[in-house]
Fold each of these.
Amino acid sequence: HKSWPVLKRTSLYVFEFVQDLLIFSKPRVPQKKYCNLEDIIKETSEFFSDLFSNREIKLKVDISKVKEKVFLDPDGILHCLTNLILNAGEIVPEKTGVIKITAKLSENNELIITVSDNGKGIPPEQLNNLFEPFFTTKGYKGTGLGLSVTKKIIEEHGGEILVSSKVDSGTQFKIIIPQTTVETQGKE
């Protein structure tokens, strides 16, 4: 019973690493469809519930501003969110760590998903290299693929990912995905 959190965390790391390698190594076309963002966020949150409860990290979600279905590749966005939350979970302090996920639709018909944390932040000199393949600040613990794969998936959606950070105050990643489509059928 005591080893389950360690086993779950280790299997999540292995799974994410294999997924990152596959996505990084070959071109892919996002399998976009209209879907419920709440389902994607819920599935992502469930990955981390045990891991975060053991370290007393709070995961706060507010996607109440996205009421309609959104057009995206649910598996790709799930992977992006998993990478971002995994990174945040490693950097926030135990017992006082907070990771927030928010979402809204902009006036320009863009889905904006924000993942922020109250971790130690990223020094300005590292921000420029953050999305470079194999760049890591985690030493032997990181592969340097998670953020570059996340950026690749977002760009495949025609979107962008922005980061802002302040040392000792936390980091914020903003995913922007256009919701315009050339499809005229299939909207639910």
Amino acid sequence: MTVNVKPVDFKFGEYISKAIDLMKKDLGNFIVAYIFVIIMSIIPLCGLLAIGNFYKYCRKVYYGEPTSPSEIFNFDDFVPYLLAQLVLIACILPFYIPMIVMSIANGDGEPSPAFGVAVVVLALAMMAVVFWLLVKAFYIPGLISLRKVQDLKTAWNMSNIMTKGNFMNILLFVIVVSFLAQLGILACFIGLIVTMPFVYVSHYFAYEDAFKQLEDDEIKEIGVKNEA
């Protein structure tokens, strides 16, 4: 992807609507593909890779290209997703170390009020970091899987720019689609395997639209330069 990277217009409702429409057209295969995502996620450090492959599957279904749910089991992007997971672990691990140290120091005694307060503060800080990463790194999976940006630092820098001005919109989008997916719990496992793919299909449309905006802007800029 060689286009100039800019903040994008985040179209919350459009992504949800398109995800519902696409899943209606091929619900059975989307369910099978998501089951394959679950199976592949059992392999250590392959969870993000499985989701990235699911985005590729979404793209092929959307554009009517030949595809199969079995393409979830593809390891072409293993390295960048491995690095992404290691970085995520490195960001979260420091919050657990103080908790473990305090637990050992407290021993078997009754937890002190200070211990309880410290745990709450660390938990809130960890949640803040997780939410911040969810938003600022939102486009990284799409950049890796759909636009072949293999360098994690480059993908991070691009995602960081693309999310500018849309922090709350993206955060709300992630929360809302996750909540809608969790409604499947009401119907137990069968409901979950129908609603959970919706999360990733809606994310796919967010990625696809963002990349199209950047490419359209690049074409317009080239046209203006040529006219000049």
Amino acid sequence: DEGPLPVRWPFTGYVSDGGVTLRRLADGRIALLMHRHVIGFKGGGLPVICFSSDDGRTWTEPTLIGDPADDAAWYVMNDRLVQARSGRLLVPVARALGAEEGGRDESLVFFSDDGGRSWTRSHAAALPSGPRGMAEPTVAELNDGRLLMLARGGLGVLLQSTSTDGGKN
């Protein structure tokens, strides 16, 4: 009822109608993660994140997650931002490897240990055989601290990968 979110958008492309997450972080801020839709770029682009310390009345300048030189066709789905018990922020993404959307995807995470100021790209999960690879990943922290990644495969099944190092591998 109060109108659009007061977030400036300085990027090529626009906020997709998919890939949005609002998450209350342990430090009290709200994180707003957005999927960036870039026309002619297979619909993808590096995700964008910004933060609010006043319950959404104002927002920080949005930043790209990852290296702008690596601005490929990245995909992030709705409600995917995770904060691990360590405080690490994790954004699971897929990247189209083929020339066409709907081809083989690899899944990985971008992670931040400084509250979202800088991001590091993990190694990709092992790419399974099959027509789709690993698409639309999500991540959860297990009770023992490992991370579990589930992703859509191309044969009507979910695929899983685990990380014992906080999502680096």
Amino acid sequence: PITGSTMTVVTATATPTSTQTQTATATATVTLTFTPIVKTDICPPSPNPAEGQLSFCVSVPPQTSMIRCEIFTLAFRKVGEKSFPPPFPGTLNLDLVDSYGQPLANGLYYLKVTVTGSSPATETFKVLVIR
């Protein structure tokens, strides 16, 4: 994921090389233009199945205030939570531990990722934990 993208614009201009013959030489000019991200994008976590840690990528606009991850059992009981304040790297790592810091037991869990700010988003993923 990229927190911004760069577009390269190449402009060709003709420069006369001789007044006697009507020939011209093209000269390329490179202009870098920053294109900000305006929409939040959350990638599925990997590896899945996981052993002890998950990674997932996020692309967020600059005005994003918080990324929150919650882990739920299949019965929707919250067993873990972690928040990430700005600045946000492109990839976030999440340890698969409960609220007490203990490793999650083997099984299927829901991972809910919530982004707050100018482009809010919420994604829910299934994660299989195998130790």
